[in-house]
Every structure is written in C-alpha cells, then in structure tokens.
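Now read these lines:
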Amino acid sequence: MFNLGRKNTKKVRGNAPDFSSYEGKIPHHVAIIMDGNGRWANLKGQPRSFGHKAGAENVTRITKHAFYRGVKVVSLYAFSSENWSRPQEEIKGLFALLKDFFAKYIDQVTKEDVKIMVSGDITAFPNDLISIIKTAVSQTSLCKNGVVNIALNYGGRQEIVNAVNQVVLEGLPITEDNISAKLYTSEIGDPELIIRTSGELRLSNFMLFQSAYSEFYFTDVLWPDFDEIEFDKALLDYLGRKRRFGGINEE
C-alpha cells in the first residue's frame, strides 16, 4: 500500500507509458500533499522562498498533465492550518506567492475551462489575497473541463468538526452521508489516490474523513522535482492495485 515511488520505473523511463488499456480506470480524483519545497531550496543553497516559488510553478505543470491523463479533479494541499507556526517572514512570502499564483493561474484555467475550488477557511488571510481568491473561484465557477481544488488554511480535523456541527444545527441525523455532504469536498467526492512527495509517510491532517478508502502513494521526490514522469509512476502504481473496500478479491 505504501509505495515509495520505486515500482514501475522501467515502464516510465524513456518512451511515455501507454495508458490506452486503462480506459475507465483512471482515478477521478487525485489529491497531492505537495511537500519538500524548503528542503529542495536548501539543497540548492537557496532560501526557502525560492523553493516555494518553484513549487507553485510546478502546480501548473502537474495539474495540466493530470487532466491530460484523464483525471477530472486534482486537490492540492497548499497551506495547512498548522502552517501558521512558521516564521512570519515565510508566511508573508507565501501570501505574496499565493496572490501572484492566483493572478496568473486564473487566466490559464479559464482558457482551459477548468474550475478552481478552495477548501479551508481563508477569512484569516489578508484582504487583498482573499479578494483575488474569490475572484478566481467566481470567474471559473461554470467551467466544466476539470476541477483544481486548493486547500488553504485547511485542517482535516476541524473540517470534520465543522461538518458535524452543521449537521446538528440543521437537525439532521449524524450519518456518514450527512457529514460527507457538509465537507468542503461534497461536490467533488473523495480522492481515489493521495500522493505525498518528499518521503514523509503521513497525512498531516489532510482529508482525514475523505481518505478512508483512498490509495496512498509516497515518493522520496521533492515537490519541485515531481514531474510528469513521476506522476505517471504514481498513476501506474495505483492502476496496478486491487481495491477491495474491505471485501475479498476473488481471482
């Protein structure tokens, strides 16, 4: 289950892999924990901000490739509710980077008919950043060619608490379906595949409810180096698994 990105290497080196035999099996929703920007920058003798910028630029490349492969929804863990503990200078830099990213990314996704969603509580962000995020969400709300769901000031535990409270306030029974309907991801469903880069083997409070039956793929590759070849490796590994959902797979 916990693959470190070492399988299928020969299949994706050199010529591009053939996905034609996997029609109808490509995961609808892929979520990515984008980790390793700071370490990537340190290895190059650069400040952490250099790594965050490279990581943001990689978002465009990977989301475009995911849609090309047939994925319909890509969720990206961009800023967790725990990231507030980082140095203020780094947080300010991340906000500036997010503002620049949304300003540039909105034109691209609009042209490609891709919808931007946001999971998390952005009310704590600077007003100018909130404004540009809301513009991106609003401007792409009717796009139908795919969804990029960006998790900002997001925490999985708090999401569950908020959902349960909403169910109670509406006087509904506390069931899995009712809780699921109140999550940020209610419109896009649970991810079939969750990828985490940089070698860390944990979810870090990401999509705790939604990941109950997700397949996990962990790779040592740092996020800025996670290219199309690495994405294909993760996809091929997923496609080689048997998903039983608690049952028995009869060969």
User: Anything to note?
Assistant: The longest strand covers residues 73-80. Residues 88-111 form the longest helix (24 residues). The chain has one domain: 28-156+191-239.
